[in-house]
Specification:
Structural class: alpha/beta
Low-confidence stretches: none
Order of helices and strands: EEHEHEHH
Mean pLDDT: 94
Strand order of the largest sheet: 1-2-3-4
Helix content: 25-40%
Strand content: 15-25%
Radius of gyration: 15 Å
Distance between the termini: 31 Å
Shape: globular
Largest sheet: 4 strands, parallel
């Protein structure tokens, strides 16, 4: 009964989709080798992610998730235009004195 989030770090890992289609397909914007974070990575891999599941009915396609390095509502808007519907955001809120209020403000700015 669990939902599956398959996280990929590069284009080669999209081949994992040949074995099974997850509920969510995420791209990690943080390099696990250097820990450098760059949201541009999501934009760079977005089209290939969409192409990898294009053969599926729209209702069967995984939700695309951009993970890490997101700290601006404008970036969320641009990621949505690229096809992402889920966002893993944490560090920018944890740096705030009141993370809950920071989240509320962020969500309001995204609407």
């Amino acid at each position: 009964g669990l939902e599956v989030l398959l996280e990929v770090h590069d284009l080669a890992e999209l081949s994992y989709l040949e074995a099974a289609i997850p509920d969510m397909l995420g791209v990690n914007n943080r390099s696990l080798g250097t820990f450098h974070t760059d949201v541009q990575h999501s934009f760079d891999i977005a089209n290939e992610m969409k192409q990898a599941v294009a053969h599926l009915a729209e209702s069967d396609r995984p939700l695309l998730v951009s993970e890490s390095g997101i700290s601006n509502p404008d970036v969320v808007s641009e990621l949505r235009k690229a096809g992402f519907r889920g966002f893993l955001i944490g560090e920018c809120f944890m740096k705030e004195k009141d993370p809950g209020q920071a989240l509320a403000n962020f969500v309001k700015a995204c609407i």
